[in-house]
Amino acid sequence: MNVNTLILGAGAAGLMCAAQAGPDTLVIDHAKKPGEKIRISGGGRCNFTNMYCEAANFLSENKHFAKSALSRYTQWDFVDLIAKHGIAYHEKTLGQLFCDGKATQIIDMLVAEMQRAKAQLWLQTSLISLTHNGAAFTAIVERDGKRTTLTARNVVVATGGKSIPKMGATGLAYNIAAQFGHALVATRPALVPFTFSDAPFAAMSGTALPTRATAGGASFDEATLFTHRGLSGPAMLQISSYWHEGEEIILNLDPENTLFEALRTQRQTAGRKQLTTELARLLPAKLVDHLATPLALEGNLADQSDARLSDIIQALQNWHLKPTATEGYRTAEVTVGGVDTAQLSSQTMMSANQQGLYFIGECVDVTGWLGGFNFQWAWSSAIAAARAIALTR
After folding, report:
1. pLDDT tens across 92-144, in order?
2. Mean pLDDT value across the chain
C-alpha cells in the first residue's frame, strides 16, 4: 500500500497533523481508541491551550526552538478551531482554557477534521520496522494479526514520550530518532508529584495552601498539596520539570509576605493565646502542628518579640526539602528531553538527517509548563510539519 504521508501516533499531535497534511495520509496507533491522553487530561475536560502561551513557557536545550511553530499557529488559532466546532470553553485560572463539556469533544473534533481531509486512521496497528531506501520509506505494520507493507514519501513521528506507560507510552520515537542518526537529550518524568521515603507528611495528607516553590532555578506561585507519599499540587508539578534527583526544593509558605504583619497585629489583640493557635488562623492547622517542633513554636504570642517572629517567618519562607524521587513516568503528565532539536528544522520539524522524516509533539526536546502549554506545542508543531508536507505536493 502506498501513501504520501504515514503518521505514527493518534494522539494530539498526530491527529492534528493528519487534518492538515493533505490527502493520502494514514495515521496508525497501537491503541484501541485515538487521543487517550486527551481524554484523561484536565480531569476529563482537557486543558487544550493557554491564553498566555509563548516560548518562555517551555523547557528545551534550545530555548528559541519553539518560537517559530508557536508564532505561526497560536493559541488563538486553536481557539478559532474550537469555536468553529461549537465547543464551549472557559478559563479556569492563569489563562488555562478548558472545555465546558468533556475532553472527548476535542478528540471528536480532531477526528472529524482528519476525516474531512480524507486521512485514514488504523487503530490497534503496531509498527514492526521502518526503513528508507533512498527514495521512500518502507514500514511493516501488524494489524489484526496480519502484516502489511506500507510505502510512504513522508513519515511523521508523533508517538509521544514515556509518560503514563499504562496507556501505551513507549520510547518508540527515540528508537526511530536514533536509527536515523539523531542525538537524544536525556529524558526524565515531568509534571509529576514528589515522593519521600519516610512519608513525612502522611498526617497532613490532603492539606493544601498557596506557596512559592523553587527548584533548578525556577519558581512558581501556585498551590502545594501534601500527600501520603509526598508533595503534589500545581506548584510541585511545575518545579518537577526543573528538578534533578538529589537536589533540594524550597517552599515559601508565605509568598505574599503577609504573615509577619498579621502576627504582629494579632499579638495586640490575642497576645495571651498560644503562638500555634494564632498561626493556625493564618496557615492550615495540620501544617502548623507538623512544623511546631522543628521551628520551636512555643509559648504565647505576646512572648514573641519582633525578632523572634521574623525568624519564624524566615523559616516558613525558606523551607528546604529533599525529595527521594518523583512518582516517575507512571503518573508524569509529560516527558522532559527527547529528540534533540539541533537536528530538526524549527520551521518544518523535519529531520536534517533524512528528507521526509518529521518529529512533532512530546517526543521532541520541548516541554511545556502545566496549564495547556504542552497541548499547544502539539498543535503548533503538528501544523508546522503538515504545512511543510502540503507544500511538497
Report:
1. 999 999 999 999 999 999 999 999 999 999 999 999 999 999 999 999 999 99
2. 96
What is the structure's pLDDT at 22?
A: 83
Q: What is the pTM of this model?
A: 0.95
Please tell me the chain's helix, strand, coil percentages from 3-state DSSP, rounded to the nearest 5.
35, 30, 40
Which amino acid, 205? S
Number of H helices, E strands in the chain: 12, 21
The pLDDT assigned to 224 comes to 98
Dihedral angle sign, alpha carbons of residues 193, 199, 205, 208? negative
CA-nearest of 381, 299, 387 to 338 is 381
Contact (Cβ atoms closer than 8 angstroms) between residue 114 and residue 10: no
> Cα(235)–Cα(175) distance, rounded to whole angstroms?
33
Please report, for residues 26, 88, 116, 344, 349, the alpha-carbon distance to residue 65 in angstroms, rounded to integers and kept in the order given.
Answer: 28, 32, 31, 9, 10
H or E stretch covering 58: strand 58-59
> How much is the pLDDT for 138?
98
Q: Are 371 and 48 in contact (CB under 8 A)?
A: no
The SS3 of residue 252 is strand
Residues of the chain with pLDDT under 50: none
Do the beta carbons of residue 374 and residue 367 sit within 8 Å? yes
| Closest CA relative to residue 3, chosen from 133, 127, 152 | 152
CB 367 within 8 A of CB 336: yes
What cell numbers appear for 274 in the block? 498560644
End-to-end CA distance of the chain: 19
For residue 185, the cross-strand partners are 338
Nearest-angstrom CA–CA distance, 339 and 341: 6
Q: Give the pLDDT score at 391.
A: 87
Grid coordinates standing for 215?
Answer: 527548584
Q: Which phi-psi region, left, alpha or beta, contains residue 24 (left: φ > 0; alpha: ψ -120 to 50)? A: left
* Cα gap 77→347, rounded to integer Å: 17
CA of residue 255 relative to chain centroid, distance: 24
- Three-state DSSP class for residue 264: helix
C-alpha to C-alpha distance for 356 and 354, rounded to whole angstroms: 6
* pLDDT at residue 137, as a whole number: 98
Angstrom distance (rounded) from CA 344 to CA 295: 52
How far apart CA 183 and CA 137 sit, in angstroms, is 21
